[in-house]
Input
Amino acid sequence: MGFKLRKISCLIAACAMFAGGAMSTAVAQSQGPLRIEITDGVIEPLPFAIPDFVAEDGGSNDIARSISRVIAADLASTGLFREIPQDAFISGISNFANPVAYADWKAINAQALITGAVSSAGGNVNVKFRVFDVFSGQPLGEGLQFAGSAAGWRRMAHKVADIVYSRITGESGYFDSRVVFVSESGPKNARRKRLAIMDYDGANVQYLTDSSALVLAPRFSPQGDRVLYTSYETGFPQVYVLDVATVGRRVLSSQEGTMTFAPRFSPDGRTVVYSLSAGGNTDLYTMDIASGQARRLTQAPSIETAPSFSPDGSKIVFESDRSGNQQLYVMPASGGEATRISFGQGRYGTPVWSPRGDLIAFTKQNAGRFHIGVMRTDGSEERLLTASFLDEGPTWSPNGRVIMFTRESQGASGEAALYSVDISGRNLRRVVTEGAASDPAWSPLLN
Amino acid sequence: MKHFAMTALFVGALALSACSKDRFGSDGYGNGAGGAGGDYVAGSASDPRSPAYFNQTVGDRILFAVDQSNLSPDAVQVLTQQATWLIENTSYTAVIEGHADEQGTREYNLALGARRASAVQNFLIDRGVAPNRLQTVSYGKERPLEICSDELCYSKNRRAVTVLAAGAITS
Output
């Protein structure tokens, strides 16, 4: 589904430029132009106001309100923004083209104001929006508009939110994205699992497989068009590749007497790195998807699994118990000598390279607890973001700012759920899913 | 004594591997489609040629220590009897399932289960069972037998189970 995006020519204003790249913890608000600088200081989220978007025709009332609600939810979910309740508003926005009464928004301490208008005709909707820096009394960037099908209204809302997020933080957004995961049902000792896909916020769930075969750990292609996963369809775990649009699937590698699992795409989407177990020994392999040509990367009696490419495709991070227990290693993407990068207490697994290339997320097991953590790619500056009975399997948001993972509660009634956390360790949230869910994998930003 | 359909004899194995399915056409759930091995008198677990006897008297499973895949003396004893039984009852093949407890990441546990299943397979082959009668599969932590979250349950979940399937080798 594509969207037409164009500028609202009459609204062109000086576009505030922000230096991007600031990572790590928390929020600071500067005194100058509207901006959240994501730095190490922990400060209050930035207050914003979003009046319901103006319906420019009678039929657009519901969709206009729904779009503005999704934008508000996206922004608030980051923990970087706080929505000012609409009942605190002094004035409303009844006409998108009218000048903004900055004083009324300043009085309720809204630092950002988002206004918009929606019109619809023949199953299509048009969404216009503007962002204002209330305290400096200026528009923040140009007004923009999207046109698309009414059925895709949530995506349009996410796109607006991505642009607002980006203008205020200087970083790219992540709201117009999807998550593939494993939907779970049934008791713990006979759990049924099926592949499902949803919007990043849990909406629009669609099932990709039935629950006749156990499925595990799906992974998106860099283009978001395909998913790799492990299925017990034949009775033995094998890696499959599934086309998201057609839901057609095929086994990637089926070698008698072997098991394959833990697949992940290379950044160009042409190669898969995965684990293959033969005779009880698990090593890493790559396979060229087009030719089916496999290549062995490791040759050790230890367990080598959970590989993940660096975003430039030159390296692979993986876990191995060659030292006696699970630790993280980095090696060239073609195989060869591996360097251990994890040295803290406990065991480290499921490393995933961030899309920005600067961090590796991992699962850590120590003293009977599980953690999701991040470290630099040389293993330095390890930080643990979560702690629970069982947290595992991190996946990065497209902008490298948020990590989603599986949290499972203990005991006979224990159930898996999806959670997300900011890489600062703040803003831990449960991602709402219909039933139990595990093994999330975040897509790239959609087009 | 009463004659049972082949599949009725798999109840014991079923309880251990709720979702397992082998490559020989016999469905772990016992749906009545089997019978590949022919009929025989199945008194119960007291018939030494019955899978029920294998499961209950010989013992179809062994347990492992945390993170380990080496065979304990108890395991060696059980597997020695398994080997003897399999050599005497050539109309069965087996899929050896390796399992792990929930204290571990999903991928690691799959690899660990593969190690455990393979340790059993290698032992049985060493004791004279034809290699082409044995297959292995790892379920990692996906199919716990006991569902509490303490060592009492974990110790029973760290297991390898030899699941019999009807039918001599086809190729």
In short: The interface with chain A takes residues 18-23, 67, 69, 95, 102-108, 110-112, 114-119, 121-122, 135-139, 142-149 of chain B (CB under 8 Å). Chain B has a mean pLDDT of 80.
